[in-house]
Amino acid sequence: MSELGLKPLSPRAELHLHFQGAIRPATLLGLARRHGIALPVDDLPALREWFRFRDFAHFVEVYALLRACLVEPADYELVTYELGSELAGQGVRYAEVTFTPGPEVYRGPRETFFDGLSAGRERVRRELGVELRWIFDIPRRTVTLHPHMPLADFITDCAINGRYDGVVALGLAGTELGYPPEPFEPWFDRARAAGLHSVPHAGETAGPASIWGAVRALGAERLGHGVRAVEDPALLEYLVEKRIPLEVCPTSNIALGVYPSLAEHPLRRLVDAGAVGHREYGHAGDLRHPADCRSRTAAHRVWPQQCGRRAGPPECH
Ligand SMILES: [Zn+2]
Residue 246 sits in which domain range? Predict the structure, then answer.
């Protein structure tokens, strides 16, 4: 039982989850008031409504504000702990959480966020029994728009320096259209050489070319979303052959307007193509090193489930 009275349902893993996107509206309101940061709305019901993403551009706008409200190590610790509580309540025992160090983090000392993340992660492990790992990701558009700030260098350095403190991979996120993966190859080369995994987003708001770029230039071992691989049979076959799993998040795709409805989402076609697999895992030990697992097929969202023993039906989250 977690501190919030949430009862774990079953051992599960969560692999596509954004730290800043997981901030509770009430927590955001409290942080904004504490730090004197103006929000577009100033009460909880209106804030909840503002959190309903209208499209990808609105999502990016919300995300930037969420990041701005994280100022002190205690803020990062609080959000990490609340996130761990939510995960514990859902029966999650292992999670790889994407953290986006934006310009606001670059301007301050690394310890501001990393010490907070580490303190929260330790509390989550000790008090809630949930193991957290970090994917530090490069926001492709933000990096491009701030050429005076070597943000990609900073993020990659932070990821590499943090590899013994919970960082397992380098990611790439943000606006895909107009910001292809290929220019980010040098940073991924450096991270991979240091032993980190490559887990970029691709094939969400852009088509198969973006996925090919992520696979060929960045050495992607797992893909954030990747659903638009369905538009290129040769690519789909390649991903299955190379065992590069997809983290498919149908509700996110609908919320951001990638697909208009679940009925039009390609999950079924991805399953039929053999690109989506699902297995239940046998015990918590299976989840210790999911980044080292390889699957015969691309996984549906929670790919370490393929490291287990019993086959099960695909499920939607
Ligand atoms: Zn994502």
Answer: 12-296
> Residue 300 C-alpha to ligand 1 middle, in angstroms?
14
- What proportion of the chain, given as a percentage, has pLDDT over 70? 83
Distance 228 CA to ligand 1 centre (A): 14
Catalytic residue among 96, 131, 204, 221: 204
pTM of the predicted model as reported, rounded to 2 decimal places: 0.81
Q: Which residues pair with 92 in a beta bridge?
A: 12
- Tens of pLDDT, residues 145-163: 887 778 899 999 999 999 9
| Cα–ligand 1 centroid distance for 272 (angstroms) | 24
The Cα–Cα gap between 167 and 304 comes to 17
The total number of structural domains that make up the chain: 1
Instruction: Give the tens place of pLDDT for each residue, 232-282.
Output: 999 999 999 998 989 988 888 988 889 999 899 999 888 788 766 443 333
Tell me, yes or no, whether 178 lies in a domain: yes
Active site residue 204: yes
- Residue 17 alpha carbon to ligand 1 centre in Å: 6
Q: Does a structural domain hold residue 314?
A: no
| 313 lies in some domain | no
Which sign does the torsion angle of CA 52, 128, 14, 110 carry? positive
Q: What is the per-residue pLDDT for 161?
A: 94
Residue 153: which CATH number? 3.20.20.140
* Dist. CA 172–CA 224, nearest whole Å: 9
Say how far apart CA 32 and CA 18 lie, in whole Å. Answer: 19
